[in-house]
């Protein structure tokens, strides 16, 4: 265990400080496709009973009109957030059952059998300027990457520490850290967390990757090196997460886009440059077709969120504010982990046990020494090898330029994370983090216990068909939610939220002034190139 980790654990184990561990915030965003009972994409509009996808804070859409996104409030205990996520699912089913032919929530990260590209509906957010901006952004994504890739779903895990922890850690540090403002110190420590996440996130892919197979229709004739499992299913025998491989969220224009995460300034400078850097293929597309906007700009990124990352530094944005504006003005507030697959064996897509491990893992990344990244980092290679070959016996990764077996390194990391888990359990007064760690240790010792291996085993029970297994899980989860209807009070809460969101969207549409052209030009001009003095 390195000295910085020991120091952090010692500080936080003090009775005077340990309570700070239970005062951070956790939240989950779960994406899921709407499908019919034949595992075909639902082409119906976003259900009106779910409210406005633009303004409902807990139920919205991601890329497609058919791709729901459920968002929990941020809670001190992830168990509370998971209960709220369960309630959102149960309410959603009350509305999906009213559809023409009851619909289901897809149980997988990789999509169902999709219709042709032209028939995948882009999410619609109404006629307000901000709603149209969101829609135009998605039009741009369709032209840049195709609609199929945008139908992949995931779990996003939002994580923050109480600001008192940052103050405690800063007081224990030497110069120059102690001379930083509280805001800047907190931001730099979150960036240090991200550096460690890049070093060790291959472990998450091994432990929790759950997409070793996909529908044969997904690739639409693209060249690939997958193996055939059945007429409708492709796979790799040792893969953990094809979603996070080069078959999933990839973009050649973004390759080598960002500098190493060695400071919050470097991160923001890279994003600010990318949203202003012209890209010839996107310039060839143009901004408008037949007078309609088809993308926000012709640069490498239309907006900051187009940058596909396994983890992001975030700040809650104010109405109309851009993400970079928020970071420049107020610093990093939390991180968003974006690499987690939907767990097809869990009705809400993620378990409490997994969440407890994520909390221990992220606190470990926070407290452990985090050297600056080198240009020739092995991190990306380790991640790529794990998502495609993670369960291969004897698989080696690169650590400090030397080969090391994935299993041995993983067990070493679990020993260190175990110290963090013990601290979290001491605060809670139970053994939930330690129990989760024991489950993960068993997976490293026996790859058959990993979700990816369990998916392949389940596929065999369904004729080696990805679609048959996924539909069976979707039906089982639907029955789970339908068998536990919300109380009258809970239903009234979600219905009131839906009505309020529709009223807010209508108010936005009726009260706005000026043209959409002027609005989008103003939005494009507010890239904080000038707001941040380092973004030159």
Automatic annotation (TrEMBL):
Signal peptide: none annotated. Pathway: Sulfur metabolism; glutathione biosynthesis; glutathione from L-cysteine and L-glutamate: step 1/2. It holds the Pfam family Glu_cys_ligase. InterPro entries: Gln_synth/guanido_kin_cat_dom, Glu_cys_ligase, Glut_cys_ligase. It comes from the Bacteria. Its EC number is 6.3.2.2. Belongs to the glutamate--cysteine ligase type 1 family. Type 1 subfamily. This is Glutamate--cysteine ligase. It comes from Roseateles toxinivorans. The gene is gshA.
């Amino acid at each position: 265990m390195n000295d910085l980790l020991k120091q952090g654990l010692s500080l936080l184990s003090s009775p005077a400080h340990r309570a700070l561990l239970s005062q951070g915030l956790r939240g989950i965003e779960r994406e899921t496709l709407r499908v019919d009972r034949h595992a075909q994409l639902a082409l119906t509009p976003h259900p009106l009973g779910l409210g406005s996808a633009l303004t409902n804070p807990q139920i919205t859409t991601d890329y497609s009109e058919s791709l729901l996104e459920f968002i929990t409030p941020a809670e001190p205990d992830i168990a509370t957030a998971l209960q709220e996520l369960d309630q959102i699912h149960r309410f959603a089913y009350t509305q999906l059952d009213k559809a023409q032919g009851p619909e289901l929530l897809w149980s997988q990260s990789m999509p169902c059998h999709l219709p042709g590209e032209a028939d995948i509906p882009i999410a619609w957010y109404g006629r307000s300027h901000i709603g149209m901006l969101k829609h135009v952004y998605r039009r741009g994504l369709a032209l840049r990457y195709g609609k199929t890739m945008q139908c992949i779903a995931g779990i996003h895990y939002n994580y923050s520490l109480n600001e008192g922890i940052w103050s405690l850690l800063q007081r224990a540090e030497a110069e120059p850290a102690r001379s930083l403002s509280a805001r800047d110190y907190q931001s730099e420590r979150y960036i240090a967390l991200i550096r460690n996440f890049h070093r060790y996130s291959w472990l998450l892919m091994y432990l929790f990757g759950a997409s070793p197979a996909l529908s044969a229709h997904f690739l639409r004739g693209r060249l690939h090196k997958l193996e055939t499992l059945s007429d409708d299913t492709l796979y790799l025998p040792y893969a953990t997460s094809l979603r996070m491989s080069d078959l999933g969220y990839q973009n050649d224009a973004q390759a080598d886009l960002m500098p190493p995460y060695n400071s919050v300034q470097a991160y923001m400078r890279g994003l600010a440059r990318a949203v202003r850097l012209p890209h010839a293929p996107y310039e060839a597309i143009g901004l408008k077709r037949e007078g309609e906007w088809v993308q926000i700009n012709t640069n490498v990124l239309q907006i900051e969120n187009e940058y596909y990352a396994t983890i992001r530094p975030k700040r809650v944005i104010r109405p109309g504010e851009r993400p970079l504006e928020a970071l420049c003005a107020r610093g990093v507030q939390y991180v968003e982990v974006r690499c987690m697959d939907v767990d097809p064996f869990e009705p809400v897509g993620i378990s409490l046990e997994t969440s407890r491990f994520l909390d221990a893992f992220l606190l470990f990344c926070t407290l452990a020494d985090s050297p600056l990244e080198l240009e020739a980092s092995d991190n990306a290679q380790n991640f790529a090898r794990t998502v495609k070959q993670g369960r291969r016996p004897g698989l080696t990764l690169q650590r400090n330029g030397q080969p090391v077996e994935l299993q041995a390194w993983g067990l070493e990391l679990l020993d260190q994370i175990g110290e963090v888990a013990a601290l979290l359990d001491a605060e809670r007064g139970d053994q939930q983090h330690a129990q989760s760690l024991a489950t993960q240790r068993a997976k490293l010792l026996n790859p058959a216990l990993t979700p990816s291996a369990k998916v392949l085993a389940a596929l065999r029970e369904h004729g080696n068909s990805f679609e048959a297994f996924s539909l069976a899980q979707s039906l089982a989860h639907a029955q789970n939610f339908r068998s536990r209807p919300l109380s009258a009070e809970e239903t009234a809460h979600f219905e009131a939220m839906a009505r309020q969101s529709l009223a807010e969207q209508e108010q936005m549409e009726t009260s706005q002034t000026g043209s959409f052209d002027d609005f989008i030009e103003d939005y494009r001009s507010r890239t904080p190139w000038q707001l941040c003095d380092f973004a030159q």
